[in-house]
Amino acid sequence: MALFWVVGGEYTDTHFHETVGGSEEWIGPFDDYQAAKAEWAKHVWNTVDDCHTRYRIERIDPESPPICTD
Q1: Model confidence, pTM
Q2: How many other CB atoms sit within 10 Å of the CB of residue 1?
Q3: Which residues of 14-48 are buried (b: 16+ CB within 10 A; e: fewer)?
Q4: 4, exposed or middle or buried, with CB in 10 Å at 0-12, 13-18, 19+?
Q5: Considering only CA atoms, which of 49, 41, 55, 45 is closest in space to residue 6?
Q6: β-pairing, 3-10 with 53-60?
Q7: How many helices (H) and strands (E) does the chain have?
Q8: 18: closest CA among 7, 27, 26, 9?
Q9: Which end of the chain, N or C, is surrounded by fewer C-beta atoms within 10 Å?
């Protein structure tokens, strides 16, 4: 069963590669996309005026882990 996480925070610039403090915030898990989206909406609306803050929804399925191509 897939789980959903809200991931993000404040980044050092608008390229969104490195966070202030060095690690992204992971909020969850949520059992369904709609619950994750409701939490995501809270965070994005609280930071709507901060161009260095970004949140996204990540879907992670423990039964089907990603394939590493390295």
Answers
A1: 0.83
A2: 7
A3: eeeeebeeeebeebbebeeeeebeebbeebbeebe
A4: buried
A5: 55
A6: antiparallel
A7: 1, 3
A8: 9
A9: C
12-17-19-25 Cα dihedral, nearest 10 degrees: 150
pLDDT tens, residue by residue, 15-66: 999 999 988 999 999 999 999 999 999 999 999 999 999 999 999 987 876 6
Token pair 């992670």 is found at 60
- In the block, tokens 């996309």 appear at 33
CA distance 45 to 49: 8
